Amino acid sequence: MKKLQLIGRLHEAGVVAVLRGESPEDVVRMAEKSIEGGIRAIEITMTVPYALEAITALAKKYQSGDPAAANYAIIGVGTVLDSETARAAILAGAEFVVSPSVDEATIRLCNRYRVPVMPGAVTIADITKALELGVDVVKLFPGSMFSPSIIPTLKGPLPQANIMPTGGVSLSNLGEWIKSGAFAVGIGGDLTKDAVKTGNYDLITDKARAYMDAFRKAKAE
């Protein structure tokens, strides 16, 4: 039941902050500012040095709260290349796992522990394989290769596929992705680049609010 609840909450959250940084302290701060801005799903990538430390710190702070509370967030892990990394991240507190490709061993491990897994896929063949392995949400990656119209195109033969574009999603096209049928969207560098450049991390909160406003507007239309 918990897996189904998490998938539902990820869908309701709508926007997943994909965070990369130079240290665990750096991405924890990014996550805190994103959550302040209303984003409720945080993905810490394994390219961050000592990423598991950041996942544990954020899981302890945000996962135990009421899902309706402002201080609640779903903490997950990204850029997972193998099942060993997935298991380590789950033990560290990750509630969902994202990978850049369809790795069967990683998917099977996540299914074993009833943890949502979102492998990256581009082709119909990749998405079909992911569905056959029991994947509930497929990450369309890199999303920058396509326009939002790719989602209804893919859903033509695969209407049962839940698709989350990541990479190339911006404030200017988020609404179009959602209206095209995206399960949710992943936001990467655009959320944090201005803050990293200026050192003003409050800009992440402002950008997060803008993304959530755009998401809610698209869902209401």
UniProtKB/TrEMBL annotation:
Top-tier EC class: lyase
EC annotation from Swiss-Prot or TrEMBL: 4.1.2.14
Pfam families xref list: Aldolase (PF01081)
Source domain of life: Bacteria
GO molecular function: 2-dehydro-3-deoxy-phosphogluconate aldolase activity
PANTHER family given in the database record: 2-DEHYDRO-3-DEOXY-6-PHOSPHOGALACTONATE ALDOLASE-RELATED, 2-KETO-3-DEOXY-6-PHOSPHOGLUCONATE ALDOLASE
NCBIfam families in alphabetical order: eda (TIGR01182), PRK06552.1 (NF005119)
Family note: Belongs to the KHG/KDPG aldolase family.
Protein's name according to its UniProt entry: 2-dehydro-3-deoxyphosphogluconate aldolase/4-hydroxy-2-oxoglutarate aldolase
